[in-house]
Structures are given as C-alpha cells and as structure tokens.
C-alpha cells in the first residue's frame, strides 16, 4: 500500500524550464560545445551517431558499451538463462545452423550462444563495433552496418534471426521494413524472434511517470514510439511468408528492489542521462538526479517491474513464390 503521508512530504517539484526545441535537439550545430565529424555528434562529453535516417538517441562510447553489457546480464538473469524461445535447441546443438543477431551491441547474447552451440555459426550486425576481434570465437563473426540500409545478406541465409531491445533504434515508420528484412534473410522453415521491453506500462509513482512522460515526448520527437515493445508482434501479422501462428513469452525485470532491482534501476537511470533528458526538460543534471532519488523510492513502494516480451514466428517452408515456380 502507498504511504500517503510519505507521499505528501515528498511531493515532487517537477519543473521544466527551458526545454530545448526539437529542432535544436535534432539538428546540433558546431556552435557552443557541439562538434560534428565523421558521422558522429559530440555533446556533453558523450559521442552520438549523426547519420541520415538514424534516430538512435543513445550514445556510442565506452560508457554506453558497459551499460549495454550490464543490461544484457540483467536480462539473462531475468529470463533464467533462457537465451531464446524459438524451438531450435536440438538443431543448434546438432550443428550447422546459421544464426543472426541484429543490433547485437557488445555481443553478450552472441558470445553466450556461440559458447553453448560450438557447432553452429553466429553473426552479429550493429552500427557500432563493440566486440573486439580477439574476443570473437571461431564460430562467430561481426559486420558493422546500418540496418536501415538493408541487411547485407542474401535472401534465405539464416536458420534463426534474433533481435532484442531495438525499440530506440527504429522509428515507428521504419519498423515494418526492418521486420520484413529479418524475414527476408531467414531461410524457409527458419525462425525469427523479437524481444522488447514495455517501457510505459509499469506500475509506477508520479515522479517516475513524469520521467517516462518526458522521455516519451523526447523520443517521439525523433519518431520513436516508447509504447511499441509489447506490440511489435503486429509487424509479423501481415507478412505472407510467415506461418500464421505467432508465439509469445514474457518475463519481468524488477526495478529498484533487491540486488537485481538496484542494478536494473541504475541502468535504467543512466539511460535517461545518456539521452540527455535533463537538457530536453531544461533542468540541471542535479535536478534530474533528485527526481530519480524520489523515483527509486517510488519503485520500492509500487513494486515497479518492467515487462519484457518475446515474439517468435516461423517462415513457411514452401512460400507462395516457390509453390508458383513449381
Ligand atoms: C539498446 S541496444 C541493444 C543491444 C542488444 N541487442 C541487446 O539486447 O543487448 C541497441 C543497439 O542497436 C544498435 N543500433 C542502433 N541503430 C542502429 C542501426 N541503424 N543499425 C544497426 N544497429 C543499430 C546500437 O548500436 C545498439 O548496439
């Protein structure tokens, strides 16, 4: 139960003073402390992508690589070590399977999969190169590419195509093209699995809700829909090459409670500083810190968890195209 008196005394002072305009946020210039070079934009000591069609708001630098590694470890713990749900365990163990991880980040999933299934081959693609060559086992490879230019593989290449936590990398208008491309590179009979969190639907207190609301507006200004996680399966629905059935799985990540919850909260909080939410809201870093202090207490009070969803589907063994050709 919520403690009313505590809540009164902690009544949040939420002030947004000088929100920087969308134009200013989306179109950084060389003025002030900005610099733009080689497809990157440097702001407040962080490095960001600055390329046409890439709306990803998170940085690409060493701190972010550590954050993504921590995020992967928390996620693996919450899924109780189940790295995937598609029914491919036996085939992967037998070997000879080709697997693609789209937006693989620092490669935590790929490295775990490559170790667990040494006779299958694993390939990661990402716009940033975060997996040192000498850490890649012989059954794993990496290609640096922008997925919005199309995946650099022929049709029908992979037995399993996996993509996780990519909702900040893909605008609402790009989602269908990306999912179509995942299906294109999957072999007939292969599986495609998506895993996304539900940022908005956690039970949360007023300050947390305000942080979420401001973040939603910030990302919407870049075309990103923060509510898309639980609905990404809809992009499977109109693809004729897929079997009709879409399978689902779900887990929760605690936020703020216990050892894992505290780590997950730390990670959640630092992602908001990484998108420079305070600048967008026109408040100081310290003021956003204060909001997060209250938010963390709220999370204990409200038992806040993040729901994480998996959706997986199979590509038809005989597509209409191949049936016609007979
Ligand atoms: C939130 S991370 C998720 C990483 C990993 N899939 C995971 O679940 O831990 C999003 C990843 O998408 C990558 N990314 C963003 N935009 C991209 C693009 N246009 N093409 C390829 N990768 C992109 C980022 O570099 C980052 O590694």
UniProtKB/TrEMBL annotation:
Which residue range or ranges hold the Methyltransferase domain? 99-190
For this protein, the record's Pfam families field holds: Methyltransf_25
InterPro entries (UniProt xref): Methyltransf_25 (IPR041698), SAM-dependent_MTases_sf (IPR029063)
Composition skew (Polar residues), residue ranges: 1-19
* Organism domain of life: Eukaryota
Q: Where is this region: Disordered?
A: 1-25
Task: Give the matching Gene3D superfamilies.
Answer: Vaccinia Virus protein VP39
Q: Which SUPFAM superfamilies does this chain map to?
A: S-adenosyl-L-methionine-dependent methyltransferases (SSF53335)
Q: What is this protein's record name?
A: 16460_t:CDS:1
Taxonomic lineage of this organism? Eukaryota, Fungi, Fungi incertae sedis, Mucoromycota, Glomeromycotina
